[in-house]
Design a protein that fits this description.
By secondary structure, chain A is of the alpha/beta class. Chain A is 43% helix and 12% strand. At the A-B interface, helix 1, helix 2, helix 3, helix 4 and helix 5 of A face helix 1, helix 2, helix 3, helix 4 and helix 5 of B.
C-alpha cells in the first residue's frame, strides 16, 4: 500500500492523548481556581464573536496552546459561568470531580449500547445503576428491573416526556383509532415546566389540548386534584379523551410540589398515564426528610429526575423510570435487519434503543455510577442538605430586612423573594426588575426572575457545586447594597 | 452557620480534580495501548453483571482506585470495544484525542446555552462552527447564518428528523387544519435508516403513512425519482397530503446514495420538505472527489450528518442545517416567563432551545471546534482518504479470492461482500451467517451483516480511528481462515 502511511497522523496515539489531555486538565483546574474573577453573567453584546475568530476552518492543524489561548482571550468573556459559586440563576447544573471522571470514562470508551450486544456491560450497568437510584429514592419495586419495570438514562426531561407521551398516545390510539389523536388531552398545572408543552407539540397532539390548570397562592401553587377532576369531566363531556397527567415535584418558577398521591388517584380513576417530573427536587428525595414529597409515586406510570441538576453529575443525565417498559418499546422500537442479533431476538436482554428517541446513545451509566460510588449515599445526602442549609441561611437574611418579603415558603434550595417597597404592583415589578438588573450587571452574581400568581419576583437558586457560605453572604450584601440604590433612585 | 462546614466535602476542589483526572487519563491511555488484547465483541452472557456488583449504592465514598479496578475486572469483559482497531461493525464511532479534549472542555465548563444570554460564546461558537462545516461541505449560503439559514448541533439523526418532521408537519397543518395529520405522507426508500420510521412515529404521523419505496440492484439501491413521483401522484389521488422526503447519502446497509438533485426537483414540484440524511457519508463530502454526491443540496430544506461517526468527534455530535430556522422555531419554541430576557426579546440573537428537542444542551460546539482546529481541513481529508484507501485494499483482497464476491460496488469505506459458494440462496445465507459468527466469536474482529435485494451479506465498515493496514490484513486472513473452515464443514 505504501503511500498510505503518514507517521504524523495518529489521532488517538496514547502518549499524545495523555500529554494533551493533562494540559487540558490543568487548564480546567486553573479555570475552577480563578472562576470567581470572571463576571458570572457574560457582559458581551450579540455578535461579538464574529470579529474575534476566522470565518472559515483552518487548512492545517493548529497547536493546542493556540486553541486554549483563544478560549481564554476570546471565548471566556462570552461565557456565562454556570460553575461559578456566584451562579444562582435558573437551576444549577452541578459539575463535580466525580461527574467529570465519569464523563471522561464515558467519552474515552466511546461505547454505543443501542442494543445489548453492542456493549453488554454498558446496558447492564445502566440497569444496575437505575435500580440503585430507585432504591435511594425508595421507589416501589414496580419501577425496578426486579419488578418488571425499569429505568433508562436519557438526555433531558423533554426526551422523557416525549417518550412517555408517545407511549401513552399509542396505547390509546390502538384502541380508539388514529383519527382520535386530535381528541387526546394532556393535563398539567400552570406551573408545569415548558417541556410538557413542547413535548405535546412534538408528539402531534394539538397544543390547544393541553390544560394548564390554574394554581393559587393558597395552595402553594400546587395542582388541585379537584380542579383536575373537574377539567377531566368537562373534557369527557365534550368528547375529548383524557390521556396524560404531568405532576411536578419542585416546579421551576417557585419550587412548588403537586400532591402526588391525590393526583395519582384521580389519574387511576380516569385511566390517565401519570408522569412525575422531579427534574430538580427529585435529587433531594434521597434524604428521608424530603422523601414524603414522592408519597403516592406507586400510583404513577413514570417518573423522571435530572442528576445533571442537583446530583453532582455533569451534563447530560436524566433518569426515567417506567412501570411498563413494553409501552415505551411498542412506540419507539424499530428492528432493521442490520441491527438484528441473537441476544435481541431471544427477548432476554434490554435494547435501550427502544426506550429513547435516538438510536445511538452515550455511556451515561458510567458517569452516574462513578458519581454514586465516589460519594456514597451519605455524602450525597450531605450535599443536598448543605445546599438547603445555605438557602435557609439566605432566607433568614431576607426575613430580617423589612424592605424584602418571601413570595412563597421555601421547600428546597430555591428562595423566591422580592422588594416590597412600591406603591402598586407595577411599581413593585419595576423595582425588582431594576434590582435584578443591577445585581446581574455587577458581574458578581447571577439570579433570574419568575412570575407566579401575577407577582414578579427574584429567584435565588442555591446549589452550584462551588458555592460556599461566603458566596451566599456576599450575594446578600450585594443585594442589600443594590436595593438601597434602587430604592433611592425610585424616590428621586 | 457553623455546623455546615465539612472540610472533607469539596466535590470540585481544583487540586483533587486535577490529580484524580490525571489518574483517569492514564487509565484511558493504557486502555488504548492495550485495546487489542480484548475480544472486540464481548463474549459475556446476558445478566452476567448482576452477580459481579452490589445491588445497591454504597453508603460511604469509595476510592477511585476501587472503581477503576472494577472497570478493569468486571466491566471490561462486558464491553464491546468500539475503539478497537478490529471493530468493523455497524458504522464506526470515531474517538480522537482532539475529540476527547473538546469533550473535556465541554464537560469542564458545563455550560448550558439554551438561550443566548445563558452563555453567549457557546451560542456564537456554534453558529460559527456550523458555518465552518457548511463551507467545508460547500453547502450553499442559504444554509449558513449569512444567508438566513443556519446550523445547530444535536444529539442524533433521529433528533434532526423529529425536529424537521415537526416543522414540516406544523407548516402544512396550519394551512389545512390539524385533523389532516392522519393524511400526511412521508417518503423514503427501503434503504433509508430506521430513524425515519421512528421519527414519524414520534411526531404522531401514522406509521402506515411512510412509503418505503423499493430500490433495486440495477440502480445501486438508490431511490428512483420516477418511483417517487408515481407514489406521490398516487397518494394525492387517494386524498393524502405528501409532506416530507428523506434522501440518503450513504445508507447503512450498503452505502447507497440517493440522486439528490433529481429527488430535489420532485420534492420542489410537489412542495415536499426535503431532508438529506448524510449521517455517515457526509464527512467524506469535505473531499472534492466525494462532494458530487451532495450535488443538488440547494434543493433541500435540511441536511444532517454525524461528526461522531467519521469525523474524529467523540459522541455525541450531529450537525443539522436548515434553510428556514423559523420553521423549526415555529414548531419547537416555548417562551416561559422564567426564561425571558432582553436579548431574546430583541429578536437579534439565536436561542438554540427552539432548534432542538430538549431545553438544556451540552456545549458540543466546543468539541467540534477543537476537532477542526486541531486537525485542519487538510488532515481531515487525509483521514477520510486513508480509511477509503484501507477499504479499497480490503476490496482488492475480496476480488482476488474466487470464493467471495462483492455485493454492491464500494463508494466510501464500507465493503459489502459474501461467500458465494452455496447451491441456492438459502445455503448462501447460512454459509455467510456461519462465517460471520466464526469471525465474531474469535474475538479478533467484529463485523455485522445486512440484507439488500433479498441478499444476505457481510459488512466490513473500515474507519475506526485506530485501524491500520495491519488490522485490515489481519481481518482478511481471519476471514479466509474461517471461510475455509465453514466451507469444509458445509461439505461434511
Amino acid at each position: 500500500m505504501g503511500s498510505l502511511s503518514n507517521d504524523s497522523f495518529a489521532p488517538l496515539e496514547p502518549k499524545e492523548f495523555s500529554q494533551e489531555s493533562k494540559k487540558v486538565i490543568d487548564f480546567i483546574a486553573d479555570y475552577y481556581s480563578n472562576i470567581e474573577k470572571y463576571p458570572v453573567l457574560s457582559q458581551v453584546k450579540p455578535g461579538y464573536l464574529k470579529t474575534e475568530l476566522p470565518d472559515s476552518a483552518p487548512y492545517s492543524p493548529e497547536p493546542l496552546e493556540d486553541i486554549l489561548n483563544d478560549i481564554d482571550a476570546k471565548l471566556m468573556p462570552g461565557f456565562t459561568h454556570w460553575q461559578s459559586p456566584n451562579f444562582f440563576a435558573y437551576f444549577q447544573i452541578n459539575a463535580s470531580t466525580a461527574g467529570f471522571l465519569g464523563e471522561m470514562l464515558c467519552s474515552g470508551f466511546n461505547i454505543i449500547n443501542f442494543c445489548w450486544l453492542a456493549s453488554p456491560a454498558a446496558t447492564e450497568l445502566e440497569i444496575l445503576v437505575m435500580d440503585w437510584m430507585a432504591k435511594m429514592l425508595q421507589l416501589p419495586p414496580s419501577f425496578m428491573s426486579s419488578g418488571n419495570g425499569g429505568g433508562v438514562l436519557q438526555s433531558s426531561t423533554c426526551e422523557a416526556i416525549v417518550c412517555t407521551l408517545a407511549a401513552a398516545r399509542d396505547k390509546v390510539l390502538a384502541e380508539v383509532g388514529y383519527e382520535a389523536i386530535t381528541k387526546l388531552v394532556v393535563y398539567s398545572s400552570d406551573q408545569t415546566h415548558s417541556s410538557l408543552q413542547k413535548g405535546v407539540k412534538i408528539v402531534g397532539i394539538p397544543p390547544s389540548n393541553v390544560r394548564c390548570l390554574p394554581t393559587a397562592f393558597s395552595e402553594g401553587f400546587s395542582l388541585s386534584p379537584q380542579t383536575l377532576e373537574e377539567a377531566i369531566r368537562k373534557d369527557i363531556m365534550s368528547g375529548f379523551i383524557p390521556l396524560y397527567l404531568c405532576g411536578t415535584v419542585g416546579t421551576t418558577a417557585c419550587g412548588a410540589v403537586d400532591p402526588i398521591e391525590k393526583l395519582g388517584k384521580v389519574a387511576r380513576k380516569y385511566n390517565l398515564w401519570f408522569h412525575i417530573d422531579a427534574a430538580y427536587a427529585g435529587s433531594a428525595c434521597i434524604c428521608p426528610e424530603f422523601r414524603h414529597y414522592l408519597d403516592g409515586v406507586e400510583l404513577a406510570d413514570s417518573l423522571s429526575m435530572n442528576p445533571h441538576k442537583w446530583f453532582l453529575t455533569n451534563m447530560d443525565c436524566c433518569c426515567l423510570w417506567v412501570k411498563n417498559p413494553d409501552s415505551l418499546i411498542d412506540s419507539l422500537s424499530t428492528n432493521p435487519e442490520y441491527l438484528r442479533n441473537a441476544p435481541s431476538e431471544s427477548g432476554n436482554v434490554v435494547d435501550y434503543k427502544d426506550w429513547q428517541i435516538p438510536l445511538s446513545r452515550r455511556f451515561r451509566a458510567m458517569k452516574l455510577w462513578v458519581v454514586i460510588r465516589r460519594h456514597g449515599l451519605a455524602t450525597l445526602r450531605f450535599h443536598i442538605r448543605s445546599d438547603v442549609k445555605l438557602a435557609t441561611y439566605f432566607e433568614s437574611k431576607v426575613a430580617k430586612d423589612s424592605r424584602f418579603e418571601m413570595v412563597v415558603p421555601r421547600k428546597f434550595a430555591l428562595v423566591c423573594f422580592r422588594l416590597k417597597a412600591g406603591k402598586d404592583s407595577k411599581d413593585d415589578e419595576n423595582l425588582n426588575k431594576k434590582l435584578l438588573q443591577e445585581v446581574n450587571e455587577s458581574g458578581n452574581a447571577f439570579m433570574t426572575h419568575a412570575v407566579v400568581g401575577g407577582v414578579y419576583f427574584i429567584r435565588c437558586a442555591v446549589g452550584s457545586t462551588l458555592t460556599e457560605e461566603r458566596h451566599v453572604e456576599g450575594l446578600w450584601k450585594l443585594i442589600q447594597e443594590k436595593a438601597t440604590k434602587v430604592l433611592l433612585d425610585a424616590i428621586v
